[in-house]
Design brief:
The chain is of the alpha/beta class. Helix content is 35%, strand content 28%. It folds into two domains: 5-134, Udp-n-acetylmuramoylalanyl-d-glutamate--2,6- Diaminopimelate Ligase, Chain: A, domain 1 (3-Layer(aba) Sandwich), CATH 3.40.1390.20; 137-298, P-loop containing nucleotide triphosphate hydrolases (Rossmann fold), CATH 3.40.50. The termini are far apart.
Length: 310
Amino acid sequence: MKKSVLLKDLVEKLGFEIVYKSDDYDKIEIDINEVNRPGLQLSGFFDTFSYKRIQIIGLPEHEYYNKYLPFDERRNIFDKFFSYPIPALIYSYGINIPYEVYSLAKKHNRTILRVDYGTTKLISKLNVFLEFALSEEIRIHGGLLEVFGMGILIIGKSSIGKSETALELIARGHRLVADDAVDIRKIDNKLYGESPENIRHFLEIRGLGILDIQRLYGVGAVKKSTEIDFVIELENWIDNKEYDRLGLDDKYKSILGLELPYIVIPVKPGRNIALIVEVAARNMRQKMYGYNAAEELNKRIMEEIKNKSN
């Protein structure tokens, strides 16, 4: 199902001035994360008009409209412009709304908004808000931490030790993003995770209860959100299972249609999982920069075999 955001929520969040509010203002939904500057439409070309987007008029459009178009032509163009069901028209730079624009917006029941800053800043704020609000999202049971600058999603069955591993990593100086539940969004073909608001910065440790990580370890031990670079799954050690000992075969986990590097770490008494996660973060960063220790070792062995055979 396609996501949408209410225009009134966007206006409230970004602090836009309402110049004229349409009758259906509270019900207008926006489901496109792009905006339109109607320069072509002000010149009379409506064939490819992206009317479902928020419309923005800045100084260039306003100056062209006022200086080069006769009043009757201006009125006719805006009459046609507002006949399309645009979600809203926003003026930047605090421009005074021409009377004919205001009256035609009222005639066609269209919302007019205004900001006192520039068009570039306005478009940037809208793009960021809409990209986030309309992005695909999913909630996953697990924990999310930033380790050496890498976003690591830690998953696994309940009681496997995800929270205990997170606590040890926090004590080592890394940062908690989420525990128990992670809200993941897909933005620009990247995945970003954060904690649900009501449990943000809290960590549950069986035997201790709920811990407030920000109060215990300081603001440097927590982070609101982070990009997810790879996934680690913790599972109980199975004696007869063959675990990866070389790391030559890369595995991936699909989340919201994106493939993320995926590592399975078997858990059993005596294994320092937090240390293994730290090393995994360092090793993953090396791979991202083009160095793979397993491939290097394999290359050396194959060269040695080749030299001996000669």
